[in-house]
């Protein structure tokens, strides 16, 4: 036998049964072990000189902290791998090899790699197999944490010895062993179950002495002489009922996170306390500046003349503790020095990607960088920080070249701070300077910004499909520039005032590119100059308090027609979509159209989805209705459970896309309307009372608050007298056993039979009145929206609408593929006249029920 490192031996003994490092999936190995096969043995030969030089202790430690993923599914991205494996601990580095579909994950701590090996990892419902690193034929398994019991440690503590065994009948059981795996049963014949529970692959010759106690089945026996082929008795586990804790309410959770809000009932004081406890403190500013300085020194190793500047929430006075750092790498590509010509280098930039240290003595000059693409520069930045990751504790290094602005994302495990580095657009400093100027012009702006951001978080209006913090801030500033009298002026008016002043005319400085107003004025100025400019602008005549302005903000946007208008934050004007001039670089019309004040082609709120847009409008209407009756309180404002019962139910919007349909869009639209109506009639037994005209819709006794995304195709008034949505999945499983599903027609018949059965069973138990509005969606390409509204706010309406929100899109898309299903005559809603083909299925459902 070859000598084996004791740590490697201990870890590999633990991992052998699960198949780690053997190339066999754990499930397949478990089947082999269950039928008596010997677990595969690993070859622990040490590397010989032909395989390479001896490794340093530092490199071996890195291998033990890393895992190898031999086959990454094509649908799994590097971002998903990073997000999933960070659940086990901090990641130093993760990279995917371009030549194959394998990947390597390097953790900061060895315990994280050990935990990841034991876990069953699923991404997109696909299992990700991991194994220890194998370098030059040697396996470097993670060290087992000291708090994990292994057979070797059990024997060491008890003074016994271990003997290896394969899993066969009468295998000794080691309670609490780290080798234990839960198999259904061990059989010694067709009807003889020897043991059901955890099974071990090693057992002690001298088993440990069990501690006496009430849970021990044999308190007076000693087990010092039990042989390996005799099973050990297991202790009886007493199942104690878990204490039942009451579910924490929204108010309790809020006051636990922000107890200072309960110290006063004054909304202005509450908003100020919220701002003071959320804003960045001096320690965070110092920490962010230190990280910026470290990064700047790192970049100067490969770029001779570069500067790193922070922008966004880190410097614009609206930062939140723990938020990410946004930074811009200034490469001075438009400077005079960049116009100089440099002779080409012998090595290409691709060579330096793999040998980044070769640039430390001869960094790139600005004139040389002008020849490279943004993706090449970004790749070089990524390689640099992978090399420096250990020195500066960078982990989760990720380049995002496909973003609107290519960025490099880093995370520092030492400070738990994330930073984004961009280098393509300097307009971000214009936005940052403008926000700093606004915060200096009026002291009411900062409490309002922090309160509205927190309100949007509690109402779940932020995220990938919602508003960004910058979008919420600009939404507030646009409103403040449209109050009467105005609280703050638009950037266009500010520039006009500043340029007309004598003090500005006497200033000297570098000229800036012209903005939308044709001026060369730039907000990218030092803080001292911005303070001087703030004193030059006339003070606001609006004397309303921050609490009053907050309610005005909700009232203004609760009735604002977002899809039909564009909000120009530069001029402060509301421009109808029909008369809006699309910039040369384009502008994406969406549900909320908020134009950036300096990048005219950028819709700040383009990420807002239809669902988030509907929720935002309804929550704003909710706040107006609630606080028109009671005084404003920030605690009540953040309480998602506090609702106004007099308001109608929140409408549900279902979006149907035609991008995969071969039918022309003009012919596809009426099919969607027809199939939608048929689903309500056949599947849910809804009665269509009437189709509403424009005059009838105007006479509805409540405000449905349906945004006009396009022309209305159909508008129906519906009536439902049964719980046809309740337990549909359960009854579908029962009915499908007695039917042969061979086509979409059969599935339609099955769903219709379930609706008929539920109509019989629950007829008269509920009465719902609701409206179905089918509308073309002009905010997105080739889409139709189905709106569901009701004047009643009840649990039944909420359950019915929630099921339809999940059920309708998939069913409409599927049954649009069958033309004759859509053309099928309407089935009667009366339960006595049911189609003959569904009668047998209905009887089977009744028997099953």
From TrEMBL:
Example GO biological process: RNA 3'-end processing
Biased composition (Polar residues): 828-842
Stretch forming the signal peptide: none
Pfam families the record matches: MTPAP-like_central, PAP_assoc
Keywords of this entry: Magnesium, Metal-binding, RNA-binding, Transferase
Protein source organism: Ramazzottius varieornatus
Cofactor names: Mn(2+); Mg(2+)
UniProt entry tagged with the keyword Metal-binding: yes
GO MF annotation, one: RNA binding
Top-level taxon of origin: Eukaryota
Region (Disordered): 825-849
Protein name, UniProt field: RRM domain-containing protein
Transmembrane segments: none
Domain RRM: 65-142
UniProt-listed PROSITE patterns: RRM
